[in-house]
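G., the chain you wanted modeled:
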Amino acid sequence: MIRLVGAELLKLRTTRTFWALAGSAVGLVLVIVVLTLAIDDQLNTQRDVRDLLSVAGLSGLLTLVLGVVVGAGEYRHGTIASTLLVTPNRLRAVAAQVIACFLGGLAIASAAVALELIIGLPWLSSKDVLMPSAGDLAGDLLGGILYAGLAAALGTALGALLRNQVAAVVSILVLIFVLEPTLNALVGGVAPFTLTGLGAAMSGASGDDNSDLLSPGVAALIWACYASLLAVFAAIRTAHRDI
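Predicted structure as tokens:
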């Protein structure tokens, strides 16, 4: 399994899509942090600082798209045939790709967090802002990194299940920006279990009302279950169709 994951990581880091989305994720986080620090003079509370630094969790949206593109890309470019010739076990093949994208998502978010801290902490210190405790800050940042990794894993499983890059990307965007808000408005208590709610819980973002969010650990576990189920469905679908 380690060799399979290593092979998938090699494929991942030698594609332009990975580097383009990685650069976009890191750049988006830095732009938001820099503009907020330059323009906003209302960073008065520890919660304000935590919300600002938890913006690294936004990289999870792009790693989600990255996972979708990678998972469906195997079928678009026809490389899935050679992959399955080497690894006939469909579940192992899908699992290796999911794990590789999970690690790639962690790497992207880690880079975003590192640059965010290098730029943000000295700037915040110069403003004499009340800083949160090291434990709270570390929890938010580590949660955001984990969120980005799990988002990439789920996206990969979804891409492998749907096989069409455009359909998979459109599906995940419609789910997050259309279906989830509609479902939240119609059904009470479902918000914490949506992708948006789970992402907010892991990354430490307060949003409009974080009173109903799950704990970061529980949110990560549920997200991992979603990704695992999609990966199993993708493997079953692949096993029952000719490549």
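The mean pLDDT is 82.

Shout if anything looks off.
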